[in-house]
From TrEMBL:
Compartment list: Cell membrane
GO cellular component: ATP-binding cassette (ABC) transporter complex
Database matches in Pfam families: CbiQ
Natural source organism: Neobacillus massiliamazoniensis
GO process annotations (BP): cobalt ion transport
Topological category with respect to the lipid bilayer: Multi-pass membrane protein
Keywords: Cell membrane, Membrane, Transmembrane, Transmembrane helix
Top-level taxon of origin: Bacteria
Transmembrane helix found in the keyword field: yes
Transmembrane segments: 22-48, 60-86, 98-118, 125-143, 155-176, 238-258
Protein name: Cobalt ABC transporter permease
Length: 263
């Protein structure tokens, strides 16, 4: 198992009703996206981080490491919003030219980029809360109860399982090549990489067929049935979720009405 999956199985929140965690995570992320508000985004970011680290027992620096993974992609997207082509404007913070193109950063574009950045990172923290506290097959069980098409769920489950097969096979081949100095020089490294990709495709295809054969031998008929844990419904958690969402909505509405940070 990779780290995300491992933390989900040893999380301090693993015995909490998976439907409650799903509703809290997706509901909070939806509120964050709709309100489009920096203050709400910061509250959600700190709230989700606190619950994941303090209640879920995920090491703080490990969570920060996970949270920093999408920053490179987010930085590029935010940069393209903060700096764009402008005409004559008195609200320019700084500007420069590339050939005949006049690029500049204005207060409005910088504000929009900041809102997007915090909204995105807060949404990511919501998803990390769910993935670091809930095994993927419990998430699939929730989606099944929500009447998501069965074919879609089966594909998600199989693809999820085959990702581990692919990573495990690649890791074994890489270790074998490295122990034989397969990456000692750049030229040899490219040659070894080509062999790794070829071997990875053949080996992974064979292992996927073996897995499908094993499933058929256990009477697989196109429907993957898994045993689910019996979770009890916590009215305390439901009340807390409703209160959190209402507080976020009130804060977002207050900011919009009085011209605060946001839309």
């Amino acid at each position: 198992m990779i780290s995300l999956d491992k933390f989900a199985y040893i999380s301090g929140l693993k015995n909490v009703n998976h439907m409650e965690k799903f509703v809290f995570s997706i509901g909070t992320m939806t509120v964050c996206l709709i309100l489009n508000n920096v203050i709400d985004s910061l509250i959600i970011l700190f709230l989700m981080s606190y619950i994941t680290v303090a209640k879920g027992k995920v090491p703080f620096f490990t969570f920060v490491k996970f949270l920093s993974l999408p920053l490179s992609f987010l930085f590029i997207g935010v940069l393209t919003i903060a700096i764009n082509v402008v005409g004559n404007s008195n609200d320019v913070l700084f500007s420069f030219r590339i050939f005949t193109i006049h690029l500049a950063c204005t207060y409005e574009s910088l504000s929009a980029a900041g809102v997007l950045f915090f909204k995105s990172i807060a949404s990511v923290s919501c998803l990390y809360f769910l993935t670091l506290s809930t095994p993927v097959f419990e998430i699939l069980a929730v989606l099944k109860k929500l009447k998501v098409p069965r074919l879609f769920l089966e594909l998600m489950g199989l693809v999820y399982r085959l990702i581990f097969v692919l990573l495990d096979t690649a890791n074994l081949i890489y270790i074998s090549q490295s122990s034989r100095l397969g990456y000692s020089t750049l030229r040899i490294g490219y040659h070894s990489l080509g062999k790794l990709i070829t071997s990875l495709f053949v080996s992974s295809y064979k292992r996927s067929l073996d897995m499908y054969t094993a499933m058929e031998s256990r009477c697989y008929d196109g429907d993957i049935n898994l045993l689910e844990n019996n979770f009890t419904c916590s009215y305390k958690n439901i009340g807390a979720i409703i209160c959190v969402e209402l507080i976020l909505i009130v804060i977002g509405s207050f900011e919009k009405i009085f011209g605060g940070i946001g839309l």
